[in-house]
Design goal:
Elements (H helix, E strand, L loop, with lengths): L5 H13 L8 H15 L4 H22 L1
């Protein structure tokens, strides 16, 4: 069973969205964020990891709203 820190996951998704995809000097950081998303979600493909992270966050937000 995966233990997910949703605040960290949300921060990674937001950072991934903010970083430019053009291969500039911050592309190393984009690679780091993509790798970390993969570790958190269990997906090697960066696009699949990002989709899974977004799915996990939607599910978490939905469950949180129902519990409140």
């Amino acid at each position: 069973m995966r233990l997910i820190d949703y605040q960290v996951l949300r921060g990674l998704v937001h950072e991934h969205q903010r970083l430019p995809q053009d291969g500039g000097p911050v592309s190393v950081r984009l690679g780091d964020v993509s790798y970390t998303l993969g570790v958190h979600t269990g997906h090697r493909d960066p696009a699949a990891a990002l989709r899974e992270a977004r799915r996990l966050l939607r599910a978490h937000d939905s469950a949180y709203r129902r519990a409140a």
